Structures are given as C-alpha cells and as structure tokens.
Amino acid sequence: MTKPLDLSCLSDDVEDNWTEDGTPSLAAVEKLLSRKVSRPEIAKSGRVRYQTPRKTAAPTAPVDYRLEILKAEERVSAIRVRFADAQVRLKAARSLYADAITAWQMANPPPSTDQAYRLHLARQAQHSAEGNVAAAQPVVRRSVLDEVMSQTGGRATRNAAARKVRGLIR
Prior knowledge:
By secondary structure, the chain is mainly α. It has a domain at 1-53. It contains five helices and no strands.
C-alpha cells in the first residue's frame, strides 16, 4: 500500500499548478516531486484547489482551566511582590540621593551678594593685569537722529514746551 502524496506545498494562486476541474496538474506534481506520477496517485492525495487539507495537531489531554487560572494568579502575585520590592529599593535609593544632595549643598553654600561682587571685582582685576580685556569698541552712529539723541540724554531731558508751535495748539 502506497502512502498518499503530500501536495500541500502547491500554491492555489498559481494557475499552472491546476487543471480546470481544480485537481493538481501532472506537470506541476512531477516537477514538485522530480519523478513520474499517475493521475490515480494524484487523486489519492485528495488535494483540490482552494481546499487544502488542514494538518491537525496531535490530540491533547483536556485542560483543567481552574488549575491554569490558579497558576496564572500565582505568577501575577509573584510579579506584584517583585514590583513592590523594586519600589521599596527605588524609594531607598532616592532617599540616599536626596541626602547626598543636601550634604553637598550644606558643604558648599552659595556666596552672598557681597562675596559674589568681590569675586567679580577680583576676577576683573586679574583679567586686567593679564591683559585679557577687550578694547573698547567705538560707537558708530547710523543717522543724524542717533547722534542728536546721544548728545541730549534722551527723552527725559528735553524741554517739551520748546517744540510747541504757538497758535496751533491751544
């Protein structure tokens, strides 16, 4: 007794693999198996286009779903315990970090305003002594109005009454 041919790898989408009645063509099967086959051998395989026989898995024992649910709940409980432990460790690490920052701030207090100003003056004097001071840039006026405004001191120093035209403003 011969074993039926396994023709499940024939693609249903390729027209050349099939005859008009939906059975595999001899040429396609011979090319696939690399040997001569007969039409009764192909018919014995039971393969028809768009009706691929499904390979079924070996039968399994019945599943006890209550037991599976209990196992899943146990796994979830274990994960929750690990998560709670990680949260405790994270809180402890953050506390140590905050303590380290506080200790550093206590050891290195910020300078007062007077100390900061004195430090600035000292650095300025040091740069002047070393010659690291940039040369003063000449002021370039772009218009006559800029020149006039720079000499008068701005709007606050002008005499507003001097510009009034007598007779037009009452």
